Amino acid sequence: MKISLITLGTRGDLQPFAALALGLQGAGYDVQVVSARNDAAWVRGLGLAHHALNVDIEQIMNGPAAQEMARSDNPLTFIRSHLRGTAALKHTMLAVLEEVWAACQGADALIYHPGMANGYFMARQLGIPGIMASPFPIAATPDYPAILFYGGPRLGRWYNRATHFVFERAFWLISRAAVKAFWAARPGQQAVTLTPATTLQAASGMPLLGAYSEVLSPRPAAWPANVAVTGAWTLANEPGWVPPAGLVAFLAAGPPPVYFGFGSMKDPAQFRQTLRVLVRAAELAGQRAVVALGWNTLADQQALPPTVYLLDGAPHAWLFPRMAAVVHHGGAGTTHAGLAAGRPTVVVPHANDQPAWGRRVFELGAGPAPIPKKQLTAERLAAAITQALTPAIGAQAARLGLRLRQENGVGTAVRVVEQLLKSGSFEASAVSP
Prior knowledge:
Elements: E1 2-6, H1 11-26, E2 30-36, H2 40-45, E3 49-53, H3 57-62, H4 64-70, H5 75-88, H6 90-104, E4 109-112, H7 118-126, E5 130-134, H8 157-184, H9 197-204, E6 208-210, E7 227-229, H10 245-252, E8 258-261, H11 271-285, E9 289-292, E10 308-311, H12 316-319, E11 325-328, H13 332-340, E12 345-347, H14 354-363, H15 378-388, H16 391-405, H17 409-423
Helix pairs in contact: 1-17, 4-5, 5-8, 6-8, 11-15, 13-16
């Protein structure tokens, strides 16, 4: 059976889908990952088939619309900036949807990221199972606020319901115009309503998979059985990756350093200043440092003290266990990787769901309160690092790491998919770890 896995975005959006694709391939399925052309070499290097969409995601992320989205550090700015951004990118997204549609012909099932919500309608049109897979909690519940609102106040169950109502509809509104235009251009079009695709997915009986750990975000008991939290989908290793000799030597030359990295949070105008803040914070905290550039670049090499190693990037599963603590932007995958390594975590949220994961780290006792990027100073960051390295936080981070390492998110998700495809039905028992 052929399964198409559809995602579009940064490494945090891609890597869980690649991990699941490897799990499904190992179970005997014919899989293909459908994502941006930038991803092709990396995905194929894992031994997976890749259908490259004719879109340069890094070029898009460098544009003014995406840069505005990347600065959306509260629900209002998220909604406003994403509505403006998707309006500016509507023609690009329509072309992408056409390519995705072509890539899905002949598939027996679709697994799609909530940002590619047309997957729900495509699966219905093709008459095949469609599975939504989200790296963050997305189904509504009165138990806690929606992900964009999680870092804010706690005002009770009615407020929580209201935040999910707003988030689901705003998130759908961002995608709906392109999806509606796509179906309007073809016969036998799907009815694209105001009801969010996430709501339709949950009500359909088809799985809506949460690719994160219940340790980090507990599953509400009232969710229907087809809304399943499987655990994170992670890669054990990346074939062909070899640590730079300089990094190996740096790690061997002293005590474990602190990791600093903001992933795909590109900061072209201010990164040099941000790097100075990170280096100074490490110095004030009395720590050696590994600084990962991520999507940032330096036109010329900035002079750094010998206690700092500058790194383009490295697999978190290899790097984080070798660190004393990790400082990052709070992406879902990076947060899980740091905690799974058992390392104290300092989150510097930039936008989107990152404040929520920063708050969860603090609530779980694995790190200090998050420091929003706009409030970042060397002194505040140094104090947070010092707090993170206290014995109590270190012990709690180690306990959480042990629990997370015992999970098998990919294996659980594969069982859900297999049970659906083999029987045509979904049961709550399918998601038992």
